[in-house]
Amino acid sequence: MKFLVIAAAAALAAPAMAGVGSSASLTGLRFDLVDLDAADGVAPGISFTGVSHARTLIGSHYCSPANPACANDFADFQGVSSVSQQYVIDPGEPPRAVAATASLAGLFASSMAGSTDTGGARNSGNEFYAYARFQGLPGSPLFQLTANTGVRITAQYTLDAWVDPWRKPPREYKGPETARAGFFFDSKFIEGGPVQHEIGAISDWLSPADYQHETGQISVLLRNDKDHMATIWGKWGAVAGGTLPSIPEPSTYALMLAGLGVLGVAAKRRRG
User: What is the pTM (predicted TM-score) of this model?
Assistant: First the structure.
């Protein structure tokens, strides 16, 4: 797939790239049925009723039809959902790029941005994320399981996060740059409770570059301990994202100046 090439290139280039980036993947997906009560005479069975969902966001926490900074794609459980976005602030500057793909072949999320990608970013506008997940929707649960049946989901995970910071930024951009990559399994039916795991990289203009890598295997069991068929709700997937330094909002500057004024008055009174 085109996205797989992009994600692989991003991961290989991570240590040398001047900027912020991350990638997360869950591959080798397996769904193994578990008979939780062999004496009940019910054969374990499952229906895959959820959807695959790919989402990307640039400079925004929320998705809405009116928000061009957010992209979504849905497909049924057997299908492929895939989205990608690229945002260029000024010609010649590295863009912010995010991409996500979700299918039974694996879940992939990646994010990248050049450290010189400034463009007057403000508070929440300097963030970018990609999600690839399976989930339930109203009227369509994640799974349906027969009585006393569990499904064990097993996957290989690979996480990368890197930051090679902007070395000579203007004063207003001398803040930390961060990257993170992780995976999650969120459902009340998970044995032992929800699972969330994340790695992160952080640096600034005075610090060395930071590169984090982790790989391993994750296994979770979703259980239906009832004596009848049950709908299993939840979501699980991979996420990658990062942040760049931002210019404070004018209101923040006003609060800072007001605080300095209060400190000045207090100091003057002490001298008096």
Answer: 0.81
